[in-house]
Backbone:
């Protein structure tokens, strides 16, 4: 999701944080809406994540301590749930990839799309034997798709984006809006490439996530 401004919402600001929240915040214009992302039991506390949940336990803890000055003790942090999937593959390989992600993000901020895509492609083309659900492979794929979209390299963008869908489903479970946005991007790329049946299937998933019917 992209940050576009700052707003003050006193009631929702009372919600506590969890790295495995049962709600997410979405906006319709200036109106803030709270959406459930899973079944909520009676009298269960409503929670949201103050940060992006697609990060390892260690990275989330560092960010929460730096920005919000507390240590999270939610179940996901205590059990390090999904860390194994995020750090899958040889550690030496993904550590090298991890070091490359901030450099690519700097190129993204500078809107140097050509160099950004070149670095993504060179990094991902190396034979690392890392799965797409590895956190740093996934981030590089997502950055590569974004760069290719800005360069109107639709086929390359689709190749990167299609590889992100299964990992996004793993890390943004339930009707999470971040997963919905990713599906929408890939669906539009499929449509642009004339892959009409695949685009329809992908966009149907967006409708289901948003509570629609297919």
Residues:
């Amino acid at each position: 999701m992209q940050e576009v401004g700052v707003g003050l919402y006193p009631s929702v600001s009372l919600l506590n944080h969890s790295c495995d929240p049962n709600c997410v915040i979405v906006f319709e214009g200036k109106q803030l809406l709270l959406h459930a992302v899973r079944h909520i039991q009676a009298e269960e506390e409503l929670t949201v994540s103050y940060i992006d949940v697609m990060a390892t336990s260690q990275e989330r803890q560092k960010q929460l301590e730096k920005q919000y000055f507390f240590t999270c003790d939610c179940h996901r942090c205590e059990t390090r749930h999904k860390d194994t999937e995020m750090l899958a593959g040889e550690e030496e390989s993904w550590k090298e990839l991890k070091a490359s992600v901030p450099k690519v993000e700097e190129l993204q901020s500078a809107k140097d799309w050509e160099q950004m895509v070149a670095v993504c492609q060179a990094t991902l083309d190396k034979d690392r034997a890392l799965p797409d659900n590895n956190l740093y492979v996934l981030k590089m794929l997502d950055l590569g798709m974004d760069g290719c979209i800005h360069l109107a390299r639709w086929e390359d963008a689709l190749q990167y984006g299609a590889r992100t869908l299964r990992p996004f489903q793993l890390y943004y479970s339930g009707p999470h809006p971040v997963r919905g946005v990713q599906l929408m991007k890939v669906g539009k790329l499929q449509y642009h490439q004339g892959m009409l049946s695949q685009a329809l299937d992908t966009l149907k998933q967006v409708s289901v996530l948003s509570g629609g019917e297919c």
Notes: The longest helix spans residues 91-109. DSSP finds nine helices and four strands in the chain. The first strand starts at residue 16 and ends at 17. The radius of gyration is 18 Å.
